[in-house]
Amino acid sequence: MILSNLQNSGRIESLHPLFAKLFEYVKSHDLLHTPLGRIEIEGDSLFINNVEPQCVTAEQQVLEVHRDYIDVHFLLEGKETIGWKAIEDVTNETKPYDAEGDCALYTEPASTYVTLRPGQFLIVWPEDPHAPVIGMGKIRKAIAKVKI
User: Fold this and answer.
1) Is the separation of the CB atoms in 78 and 32 below 8 Å?
2) Which residues, including other chains, have CB under 8 Å from residue 9's CB and lie 6 or more apart?
3) Whose CA is closest to 73, among 136, 115, 10?
């Protein structure tokens, strides 16, 4: 998991061949005022889901795991807490991995929580079970999906 400010993205752009393209896109487009929905940058290899979810409590949220994509969460408006737990420590799988949706779910508490604010991003890898959208009210965020 990597948490940082958007202005510091250059430090991590070499970690994946599509990261530089992603961060350039995010920095050069007004995603807050872009219509909700999928934004294709490079087909199924790199796209953004621009969403406006209702936050839930930490107790209500489940951990999710992806195998085929890296998630890059960009908070556009509001305040969001995201929980994390090491993949080696999750045990209570409630939805087995579904390749079509690239997701498995675990209902157990996260071990660590971080708070994301506008201008920040959080990268979660397949070994990073995470519980997003924890907080109060609606938020606006962009979730980039980067094919591994």
Assistant:
1) no
2) 19, 23, 27, 121
3) 115
Per-residue DSSP letter, 10: G
d(CA 4, CA 55): 21
Neighbours of 26 (CB within 10 A): 20
Whole-model pTM: value is 0.96
- Residue 105 backbone phi and psi in degrees, to 5: -120, 145
Instruction: Please give, one letter per residue, the 3-state secondary structure of 42-67.
Output: ECECEEEEEECCECECCCCCCEEECC
- Using CB atoms within 10 Å of the CB of residue 6, give its burial: 0 to 12 exposed, 13 to 18 middle, 19+ buried: middle
pLDDT tens-digit profile of 65-110?
999 999 999 999 999 999 999 999 999 999 999 999 999 999 999 9
**Cross-strand bridge partners of residue 63:** 106
Question: What are the structure tokens assigned to 119, written together?
Answer: 């201008």
